[in-house]
Amino acid sequence: MVWSPADLIWSLTNRAQLTVFEAICANLFLALIASMGITPLYNLLKGNQFNVRGKHVYVTGGSVGLGRGVALELAKHGAHVTIVARKEAPLKETVELMKKEAAAAKNPFEQKFHWISADVTDKEQAIRALDEASVHFGGKVPDIIMCCAGTSIPKLFVEATTDEFEYQMKLNYFGTLYTVHESVKRMVETGIKGKIVLTSSTMGLVGFAGYSSYAPTKYALRGLAECLRNEFLLYGIGTHIYYPGTMFSPGYENENLTKPLVTREIEGSTGLTPREAAKGMMAGLRKGQFTITTDFDTNFLRVAGKGVTPSTNIGLDYVLGLIAPFGATWFLWETNIKVKNFGKKLLKNDI
Ligand SMILES: NC(=O)C1=CN([C@@H]2O[C@H](COP(=O)(O)OP(=O)(O)OC[C@H]3O[C@@H](n4cnc5c(N)ncnc54)[C@H](OP(=O)(O)O)[C@@H]3O)[C@@H](O)[C@H]2O)C=CC1
Ligand SMILES: CCCCCCCCCCCCCCCC(=O)[C@@H](N)CO
């Protein structure tokens, strides 16, 4: 008797009937495979969950690196964009690039591109920048806030100063917080169902030698994003967090000046261009993902450290979750060995 999908498939092959045990296993297996289709199917039905066309998007750190990549993607897809950073020259340059991007995309309406010079670690300046951005939109707060400004000063713990710890927390965490806090207050006051996007890092999911002053700032953003995702359901505001791996940006060039050799060895040298990363980030946002990753390792770490967060793909997250502990153990061992070997070389004064 055919009583389940697995029996049906099996009966088509004209073999002997499945035993009950075989049928249970085969059906579970089929259910697992089918579950991998649930999220893609849901996303297909939902369509684009991050439509930026005609929206005003505010990008901190939008002058170079990831932020510039994001700004250009936004320009291409029909958004009005305000970018914020400190140095004027790269800001102006990015505005010109956005104009070119929009012209090439032939969007059938005029897009507004503005730049604002402000230091987001300064509360007053962060608020002033939001005010200035709103001026061109009848005083309305931007619809979408994307926080990309951040920095990393990799060093061995004992070689880093506590000022460096404080500075990175001030920029990566509080620099994000000031902007998000002020803009969400305004969204709530004016009933805007906006979106908030934070930028963490692979180092917001794993920690190893050289990143003790940086990884905690990115873990802090994870904590913030998890609370806000839940709380902002109150207002219909969406919260998302991107965990990029290495991006070959000006910031990356700069951090390599202080990066200990062992840190370089552990993190390897593969990465994406900021534009590629921005494209991947936008793709995740369109699918409505809460946690966005754009490389294999970080996706693995996302699953290994999933905690209590929404799935990116229900079935696939489950299967990857079964393998992840093995990958994590392997990485742990390999990293321990790298650090111990580095220690031996240090003792012999080889480096
Ligand atoms: N590059 C990488 O490998 C990775 C980076 N990340 C994260 O991604 C984000 C972007 O990185 P990346 O593109 O490399 O960064 P870059 O250093 O290349 O660019 C940083 C941007 O932030 C701006 N910025 C820096 N400080 C301030 C400030 N105080 N106020 C306002 N704007 C500021 C910079 O402009 P200005 O200096 O003129 O102010 C610039 O526009 C960061 O949060 C970073 O931590 C995560 C994983 C990997
Ligand atoms: C489940 C187990 C899988 C383990 C794989 C782990 C791989 C770790 C690679 C680390 C790459 C670091 C990139 C981010 C660096 C960064 O944020 C700075 N460059 C800041 O600018």
UniProtKB/TrEMBL annotation:
Classification via Pfam families: adh_short
Transmembrane intervals: 20-45
Entry's EC annotation: 1.1.1.102
Pathway: Lipid metabolism; sphingolipid metabolism; Sphingolipid metabolism
GO cellular component terms, semicolon-separated: endoplasmic reticulum membrane
Keyword Glycosyltransferase on entry: no
Subcellular location: Endoplasmic reticulum
InterPro entries membership: KDSR-like (IPR045022), NAD(P)-bd_dom_sf (IPR036291), SDR_fam (IPR002347)
Any one Gene Ontology molecular-function term assigned to this protein's record: 3-dehydrosphinganine reductase activity
Primary localisation category: endoplasmic reticulum
GO BP terms in the entry: 3-keto-sphinganine metabolic process; sphingolipid biosynthetic process
Keywords: Endoplasmic reticulum, Lipid metabolism, Membrane, NADP, Oxidoreductase, Sphingolipid metabolism, Transmembrane, Transmembrane helix
Domain of life of the organism encoding this protein: Eukaryota
Catalysis performed (reactions): sphinganine + NADP(+) = 3-oxosphinganine + NADPH + H(+)
Function: Catalyzes the reduction of 3'-oxosphinganine (3-ketodihydrosphingosine/KDS) to sphinganine (dihydrosphingosine/DHS), the second step of de novo sphingolipid biosynthesis.
Protein name: 3-dehydrosphinganine reductase
Organism: Mortierella polycephala
